[in-house]
Specification:
The protein is α/β, with parallel strands linked by helices and about 230 residues long. Helix content is about 20%, strand content about 30%. The protein is built from five helices and 14 strands. The strands form two sheets. Strands 6-5-4-3-2-1-14 form a seven-stranded mixed β-sheet, covered by helices on one side. It has a seven-stranded mixed β-sheet with strand order 7-8-9-10-11-12-13. Strand 1 and strand 2 form a beta hairpin. The model has no long low-confidence stretch (mean pLDDT about 95).
Length: about 230
C-alpha cells in the first residue's frame, strides 16, 4: 500500500509500505497548515528539492525528532550539515544520480528554478526526483518552470506527477498540463499553490482546465491522506 499525506505548499509525506518519506518540510510558518502537528511528523527520510525557506523551514525540527536521513543536491546538503545534522544522516548527490534505498530507487532530475539556502549561500541546482518503487513510479517536480527536459522522463512510465500549479514563482496550471503531457502521466497531484497571495489559485477553474485536458487532478485538503 502506498499513500501520501499533504501538509500544504510542496510538503508531502509518502508512506511506501511503512517507510515514510517527507518532501520539502514547510509547516510551522504556513498559516494554512496551522492544524498540522509538526511533532507527529516522523519520517525515515527527508528529500529537499532546493533550499528556499518555504521548502526547508522545518527540516531541522523534523530531522531531530525523527532521526531521518536527509537527501539533497550537494550544496543544499552542505547547508543541512551546517544546521547540525550528523554526517551519517546526510546524503548528498547530484543531477542524474540515483540512490538505491531500502524502499526503492530515487533519481535526481532537472528543475528550472533558482536555489539559495536560508543563510544566503548558494544552494546548487534546484532539483526534482523520480521515485522508482515496487509497482509504481512517482515524479516530484519540486519548484520548476515548464521545461523541455521533462520530455526525458516520458520513458519512465510515471504513474503520478506531483507538479506545482500556483504560477508566479513556478509554472501555473496551464503549463502543468503541458508538463503532464510531456512526462506522459494522466494523474497529477497539485503542489505549491495558495500559501501566499501571488500563488493563490481558482480551484474550480484549475480543475476545469485539467478535466478538459483529460488529466486527473488531485487537490487534497491539508492533512488529508490519499492512496496512490
Amino acid at each position: 500500500m502506498m499513500k501520501v499525506t499533504y501538509y500544504g505548499q510542496s510538503c508531502v509525506e509518502f508512506d511506501f509500505d511503512g517507510t515514510k518519506v517527507l518532501l520539502d518540510p514547510f509547516v510551522t510558518y504556513n498559516p494554512l497548515a496551522k492544524d498540522v502537528k509538526l511533532a507527529d511528523i516522523k519520517p525515515d527520510y527527508i528529500f529537499l528539492s532546493h533550499g528556499h525557506q518555504d521548502h526547508v523551514a522545518d527540516m531541522l525540527a523534523v530531522q531531530q525528532q525523527s532521526g531521518a536521513t536527509v537527501a539533497a543536491v550537494v550544496e543544499t546538503a552542505a547547508w543541512v550539515r551546517r544546521q547540525g545534522v550528523e554526517e551519517d544522516k546526510v546524503i548528498e548527490y547530484n543531477l542524474g544520480g540515483t540512490l538505491d534505498l531500502p524502499f526503492g530507487k530515487v533519481k535526481m532530475v532537472y528543475a528550472a528554478h533558482t536555489n539559495s539556502t536560508p543563510d544566503g549561500e548558494y544552494g546548487g541546482f534546484p532539483v526534482g526526483y523520480v521515485f522508482f518503487l515496487k509497482g509504481k513510479t512517482i515524479y516530484f517536480a519540486g519548484d520548476t518552470a515548464l521545461t523541455m527536459e521533462m520530455k526525458l522522463l516520458e520513458r519512465h512510465n510515471i504513474d503520478w506527477a506531483f507538479l506545482p500549479i500556483g504560477g508566479h514563482y513556478t509554472m501555473d496550471a496551464g503549463d502543468a498540463i503541458i508538463a503532464a503531457e510531456f512526462v506522459n502521466c494522466d494523474k497529477v497531484f497539485g503542489i505549491h499553490y495558495d500559501s501566499f497571495p501571488p500563488i493563490k489559485i481558482d480551484k474550480q477553474q484549475v480543475e476545469k482546465q485539467f478535466a478538459e485536458a483529460g488529466i486527473s487532478l488531485s487537490l487534497p485538503k491539508i492533512g488529508e491522506t490519499i492512496n496512490l
